[in-house]
Amino acid sequence: METTILTYKIFDSVAQLPNNWNDLAVGNIFLSSSYFEVLEKSAPKNMTCHYIGLYKNEKLEGIALTQMLTLTDVSSFGVNKSCIKSKLRDFVFKTFAEHVLFVGNNMLTGQNAFIFSNQITTTEALSTLKKAVIQLKKDLKRQKTKIHITSFKDFTIEGSKDFEIESFKKYYLFTTQPNMVFLNQPEWESENDYVNALSKKYRDHYKRARKKSEMVTKRQMDLEEINFYNDKINELYFNVTKNAPFNTFYLAENHFPTFKQLLGDKFLFYGYFIEDKLIGFNTMIINGCALDTYFLGYDDDHQKDKMLYLNMLYDMIGYSITKKYTKLIFSRTALEIKSSVGAKPIEMFGYVKHSNKFINLFMGKLFQYFDPKVTWIERNPFK
Questions:
Q1: In this structure, is residue 379 part of a structural domain?
Q2: Cα-trace Rg, the chain
Q3: Is the whole-model pTM more than 0.90?
């Protein structure tokens, strides 16, 4: 039987992508040229994206996304900088992890790294993708950018097993906070059906949160409104993200208007108002039969007083039920409160390697130190 060696091409811009790129990306909007255009026009300032095509007999059979992040360009690694451990972590990140190359999407949770057709095996595709990544790192080095860390992310336990091949022997398998996924039940027709499925304790939580937010109005915002409120939107977004232990990027100021302009109805933007004052927002992205939650923002006073974040979770659940999406991807962070509304944790894995062979020997211990395990209690709100 004749064997065909896969080849690859690395693309620097959306304009270079082949016309049939979206034939493969049809199963995941986050690998489509339309979404890549969003990144190209409004990616974080410290992010550079590349796109990789895998070819068999000159036919496109695989697509992938890479994101290179320059961590020294991030103005803050979070506001909690008083403790020695935080300062040490910041120093190490900036000294030994200035440039990080992700195969996947660091702005999302889930397998948004690649899609392969059934005309090629996963083993040969991953081996060729790794060769492409090595070439990309050489290209970046010629441009005076040395990649310190390379990471393939985020995969389920089943997906991570595909990497148990010779090509990835020197990569360290890691796990981070789980992806919180809310699964809709086929019999649910409305938000009321969801509420009725809750146990009394969590039904009371729901009623209390809804009562707290009676003065808050919510509406879907179009491009014109997003542009009008854009300064306030960025202020609310930064108010939330600045409290993270550290950030690898900040969204560009034009990110949300660009997203809405290019993806239209597939990008949902909801504003929360008291009278005419915008006090919060959340966003969702339609991805086939699933909804992915995206970035949100709020001011602290109204968040506490109106239980704004919890109400946003309920609103997103209600929308997903009404519109008959099979699942709602809540992503990682805020694990316990997402669990309290019914989301289940899906453990996510990745593979990481440091360019320094000596440091790479201790990658396992270093990773556990700088990304400590989060302790939380899983809830079951249903009867």
A1: no
A2: 22
A3: yes
